[in-house]
Write a structure and sequence with these properties.
1 helix; four-stranded antiparallel sheet; 4 strands; 25% strand
Length: 114
């Protein structure tokens, strides 16, 4: 009886301890994960350009949908069309006005101003 208990405990210990350490490791690392919020925009270009214009707005995960975008949450905006290509980063951002609704559309101002 003692040998079967010892063997069972040994199997339990050899399988459980590594699993427990793995779960603890992932739990500790999970608290430090961060993700940016990325909005992709595209549409037909109709003013001084042709084809499709695209924009990618990248914000920190601290941004609250439905509010104006604080400068601290702005990471970058990249625009591309047949007429112009540019990127605005947090380092080159002057002022920003506006925000995004929960569905990704612009707030009541109908635009973002950089």
């Amino acid at each position: 009886m003692f040998n079967s208990f010892t063997r069972a405990f040994s199997v339990f210990r050899s399988r459980f301890v590594p699993l427990a350490l793995t779960v603890i490791s992932f739990s500790v690392l999970a608290g430090t994960a961060r993700a940016n919020v990325i909005f992709d925009f595209s549409g037909t270009c109709s003013v001084q350009c042709s084809g499709t214009a695209t924009g990618v707005l990248t914000l920190t995960d601290a941004y609250i949908i439905g509010t104006d975008i604080p400068q601290a949450d702005f990471i970058s905006f990249t625009y591309s069309s047949s007429d112009a290509n540019f990127t605005i980063t947090s380092a080159t951002l002057g002022n920003i006005a506006g925000g995004l609704k929960a569905n990704g559309s612009f707030d009541s101002a109908g635009q973002l101003n950089f």
